[in-house]
Design brief:
- This protein is an all-alpha fold.
- Helices cover 79% and strands 0% of the residues.
- It is elongated, with a radius of gyration of 24 Å.
Length: 237
């Protein structure tokens, strides 16, 4: 029985109520970190590697957008499921902050006040970096929406791997085979590595992505690791 002196944040009700908030905060923070990493990589390749700069990044966005829309169409989904996340992310980063409207206002030839003139000069001085960030943000949104298209396949292979692993576990237990907690935990953590690092690499890669190949490998590896995880599960079900 819990002590009466236990504070609210240590009680079971607090864990239930705060878990969604903690999850939302972690996901939001992770998205911000991924966005910063992606924009940093985009800026390096645009300013230091690609001779055609932002134009090549725009071409990459157009190619990924077309591929994502085609993939959504094959699944019977609308194009808005690809463009929606990109527009939402762009709106949060640039429209809510006023950077988008600022660019439109500075593009007009009308006279500006002295403070606006100073800001306009700073904006024009960093226009390439701002355009890179705008295109890169939309590219990240498109790639995230495209990666989500593979979630049903991921869930299917995870379920198949889990069922096959539990079947192998039951056979081995009935035959007196060994169990391994170390293999169970390694397989479990490697799934996080495969999904986390693999997914982030697809999102921030500064070049064309073969989605069927790359995402397919991540999904298959995750399903295989799920099979290994549950095949060596030691506790009674």
């Amino acid at each position: 029985m819990a002590s009466e002196n236990t504070s609210f944040h240590e009680g079971p009700w607090a864990a239930v109520l705060l878990s969604p908030l903690k999850l939302a905060f972690s996901l939001g923070l992770g998205l911000v970190v991924i966005l910063l990493v992606a924009l940093s990589i985009d800026w390096v390749v645009v300013s230091r590697v690609w001779p055609d700069g932002v134009d090549r990044l725009r071409g990459l966005l157009a190619a990924d957008l077309g591929h994502g829309i085609a993939l959504a169409a094959r699944q019977g989904r609308a194009a808005g499921e690809i463009t929606g996340p990109a527009n939402l992310l762009y709106g949060v980063v640039f429209e809510v902050t006023g950077i988008h409207d600022m660019g439109l206002r500075f593009a007009e030839p009308s006279a500006l006040s002295i403070p606006d003139t100073v800001v306009r000069r700073a904006y024009l001085a960093h226009r390439e970096a701002i355009e890179t960030a705008m295109v890169g943000t939309q590219l990240l949104g498109v790639r995230f929406a495209t990666f989500v298209r593979f979630v049903p396949l991921l869930l299917l292979l995870y379920a198949v791997g889990t069922a096959d692993g539990l079947t192998e576990r039951a056979i081995r237990r009935s035959c007196g085979g060994r169990e391994s907690a170390s293999l169970y935990h390694r397989a479990k953590y490697l799934q996080v590595v495969a999904l986390g690092l693999g997914g982030v690499a697809l999102l921030v890669w500064p070049g064309p992505v073969a989605w069927e190949l790359c995402a397919g490998v991540i999904v298959v590896v995750t399903g295989g690791l799920a099979r290994m995880q549950w095949a060596f599960y030691k506790k009674h079900l």
